[in-house]
Structures are given as C-alpha cells and as structure tokens.
Amino acid sequence: QVQLLESGGGLVQAGGSLRLSCAASGRAFKLYAMGWFRQSSAKEREFVAATSWSGSRTYYTDSAKGRFTISRDNAENMLYLQMNSLKPEDTAVYYCAAAPGGTLPGSTYNNPGNYDYWGQGTQVTVSS
User: Fold this and answer.
1) CB < 8 Å & 24+ apart, contacts of 39-44
2) What are the pLDDT digits (tens) for 55-76?
C-alpha cells in the first residue's frame, strides 16, 4: 500500500509555471507506475501524464505535450509534474495516483480505473 500527498498548487497567471510534487509513503514506491490526473468542476477526472516505475516511459495527454513534464525520484519517493505555459483551461484539482505493477500497457495509462491509490489533490488556478 502507498499513501500519496500532493503539493505545489496555487494561483498563477496564464503563461506562468508551477511544479507539482507528490510525496509517497512506503518503501515500494518504485514498484508503482505513477500518473497525474486533474478534475475541474465542469469535467470528469481526466488523464494528464504518467510514467513507468523507472521513469523511462512517459505518457501525456495531447494538451500537456510540450508544456508539462512528468518525472520521479525513486530514491526520494517523489513524483513531479513541471507545468509551463499554463493556460486558464489547465485550472483544476490535480491528483497523483499509483498503479501497482510498475508498468501498464501503453494504451491504459490514461484510465483512472487502473490506479489503486490516490492523493487528496492540489488546486491549480490559472488566471487570464
């Protein structure tokens, strides 16, 4: 089992940057594939980015490609999401999630049902 705690959200102007962090408890962090999802009041929870256990494989939703970078530090049990060139439509609560097994088939990283553990979320608000 792993417990997740996000931080780093806040209010930023359009075009700005934020770095989200997700601290994981437990010594088995490297056994999990990790993902970032987000949810706004008007939308269902949607996939943002994911990484395999080693960080060698990364996946992004189309709107995040070229602007967001997911990374992890297995020695520190940390997951990150660097977000640049933020837009008002990026406004949402951002969640990190863990999927046991270390990897998922490439086509399934974006399915929240494949993740067993979730953090409480951190609010990101981008003003225009």
Assistant:
1) 39/92, 39/93, 39/95, 39/121, 40/91, 40/92, 40/93, 43/92
2) 999 999 999 999 999 999 999 9
